[in-house]
Amino acid sequence: MRHALYTIARPLLRVLPPEAAHRATLMALAAGLGGRAEATEEPLLRKRLWGLDFPNPIGIAAGFDKEARVPDAVLGLGFGFTEIGTVTPRPQPGNPRPRVFRLEADRALINRLGFNSGGLDGVIQRLRARCGRAGIVGVNLGKNRDSTDPIADYADGVRRTAALADYLVINVSSPNTPGLRNLQAHAVLEELLGGVMAARAESGAAPPLLVKVAPDLDPEECADIAVVALATGIDGIIVSNTTVSRPAELVSPQASQAGGLSGAPLMEPSTKILGAIYRLTEGRLPLIGVGGVASAADAYAKIRAGASLIQLYTALVYNGPGLLDQIKSGLLELLRRDGFGNIAEAVGAAHRETLMPMRTPA
């Protein structure tokens, strides 16, 4: 049985500290112990975007495979795509440990990793080694903590990885690098995106270029990001990163830890921001929805709010790799129930339904 090993290993993983459990998971995948999903996917779940053919719209978010050590093993589990990183130009250790905390009762995590990264050199070497293999692999880029020129850091990452990545992400939304989220301000973001677009042109390659934003944006900030994104011509937006807010309903003892909160409590606020940015960009810019996805209903809500693709991570900590099959099969049922012929037809449906009755199956 494909996920039988996880069922056996799960009790051990649960007693290990979060980072140790994560390392053990990566080692198991690198050793080929993750198994492989069936090669065929339901046509209804396929998605063509940016000239890329996604076998299904569900990907694993940045943070899981920071060093590009297991992209093919992740894809083998049945994900439609994977995103490695966040990777910084130079190696850096990140923040002191402990820096990842499980909020068991809330089905959430708090992390303050701080862009711990082995640097671009190792990632580039591993990506070159897999050149020619099937599967969509994105690269999420960050800046070094001590950088005095953030634009130069991001541009360096773009130039060096553009020929190796299926898409690139400019991460300006982690709450764990001081000053990083300030890069989301209108004028600063405009200059940054202009710089990385120029770096992509210099590279001679043209992977789609996306920016990843926070879930803690106010309406004015959302509007600024939408304006800048459309004006600069970037290819998409990922909504969203972890949140610095702490919902009142959190009950876990670790809820007061500093860092970014992910998991179930992030579903509602991140989907709200996703919908706002979809409306502000008038559906003209592809969005990737991430934050709190733990079921087919969650994934469908993101799609209906405006997401062309979905990412998840924290829910895998609590539910294991079998969650992916559950989401894909449940998503199929929901699309068929509502009479959609493909994923693209469902993208942004929640906004259209404010103007017209809900469609029903034929």
Descriptive overview:
This protein is α/β, with parallel strands linked by helices and 362 residues long. It has a single domain, classed as Aldolase class I (TIM Barrel), CATH 3.20.20.70. Helices cover 38% and strands 16% of the residues. An eight-stranded parallel barrel has the order 3-4-7-8-9-10-12-13, surrounded by four helices. Helix 9 crosses helix 11. The C terminus is likely disordered.
Write the layout of secondary structure elements.
Blueprint: H1 4-15, H2 18-30, E1 47-49, E2 52-54, E3 58-60, H3 71-76, E4 81-87, E5 100-103, E6 108-111, H4 120-129, E7 137-141, H5 150-161, E8 167-171, H6 186-203, E9 209-213, H7 219-232, E10 236-239, E11 260-263, H8 267-280, E12 287-290, H9 296-305, E13 307-312, H10 314-319, H11 322-337, H12 343-346, H13 349-352
Parallel strand pairs: 3-4, 3-13, 4-7, 7-8, 8-9, 9-10, 10-12, 12-13
Antiparallel strand pairs: 1-2, 5-6, 6-11
Helix pairs in contact: 1-2, 5-6, 6-7, 7-8, 8-9, 9-11
- Let me know the average pLDDT: 93
Give the N-terminus to C-terminus distance in angstroms.
Answer: 37 Å
Q: What is the 3D form?
A: globular
In the CATH hierarchy, what is the architecture at level 2?
Alpha-Beta Barrel
The fraction of residues in strands falls at: 15-25%
Q: State the helix count.
A: 13
Q: What profile does the largest beta sheet have?
A: 8 strands, parallel, barrel
Helix and strand succession? Answer: HHEEEHEEEHEHEHEHEEHEHEHHHH
Instruction: Quickly name the level 1 CATH class.
Output: Alpha Beta
Helix amount: 25-40%
Spatial strand arrangement across the major sheet: 3-4-7-8-9-10-12-13
Number of strands: 13
Radius of gyration: 19 Å
CATH fold type: TIM Barrel
How would you name the CATH homologous superfamily?
Answer: Aldolase class I
List low-confidence stretches: 356-362
User: Structural class of the helices, strands and pairings?
Assistant: alpha/beta
- Overall number of structural domains: 1
